[in-house]
Predict the 3D structure of the following.
Amino acid sequence: MKSVQLIYVFICFTLVCNCSSDETQTPQEGQQTEPIYFPPLDATTIWETKTIADLEWNESQVQPLLDYLETKNTKSFIVLHNGKIVIETYMNGHTNTSPWYWASAGKTLTTAVVGIAQDEGLLNIDDKVSDYLGTGWTSLPLDEENLITCKNLLTMTSGLDDSLGDNISAENLQFVASAGERWAYHNVYVKLQDVVSNASNDNWIIYFNSALKNKIGMSGAWIPNNDFNVYWSNTRSMARFGLLISANGTWGNSQIVPKSFLNEATSTSQPLNQAYGYLWWLNGKSTFRLPQSQLEFPGKLIPNAPSDMNCALGRDDQKIYIVPSKDLVIIRMGEAADAIDFALSSFDNELWEKINLVID
């Protein structure tokens, strides 16, 4: 019944909306003229800011935006422009040091680390998953299991049954369609962490910390949650990751995540869901699909948001919005804004209506 309700809400929503030291990076030609600012790796050092007046934004609309966020169960909200903090606020009992869960927005952490591991020659996303996990990691016949590549896990096209819950033990990974023939949001992507671990001969958390977390000054940890781990951190750490992705995988003068891989990750990755990359949601496409549904919806994922926006979206409205055309990274952490707690809801569109009043 919940799935039917979600589908109905989204159909209505769609119809309505579619009738250690400071470092800078010099942009390439054709990009923004202001260098990207990267905060020091030492989180106790001041993160540089800029004002609403500096950007000539509409200051009279900032407080209405913050009031709206507070009424929508928000705990923290950050806006970066070219890496500098423009808005940073904490509410509903949250502070700048409080940890909070990323939920499915943390899927993109796995994407980034897979890209790093591939760049190091440890794996190839076009290889079948069983090359790294061995056979029998699903309940599928061997010929079907061997069709599932790492890229299928990155793009949600494994063909595995998405109706059986989050448990990713072999007996719970059952056949619905051959790999590549069906898009369905499925927690089986977590197997990519095992792929990285086996390919690197290292523990996933140790590899994650050394390959990504420590290089950009993030805090946080992977915390067990039933059948898988969920990332928790303070809000600035989520903003650091968003900044890394917005800077094409660079941090200062270091290329952390390969730019070519990120270009693939933030582009339509398969023909079944235009609005999905490698665990990243993509705005501005002509159609999109959603979890718990095999329906295709017309129009942009978030109509009020910029068409070039890429999103990491998590349960209870955890958000990373990256907007290249406006040099923005926007973070929202908190509890579910409304009764529906899926990663995408009408809240996204309403929030962008409020944001647009500030920045336009």
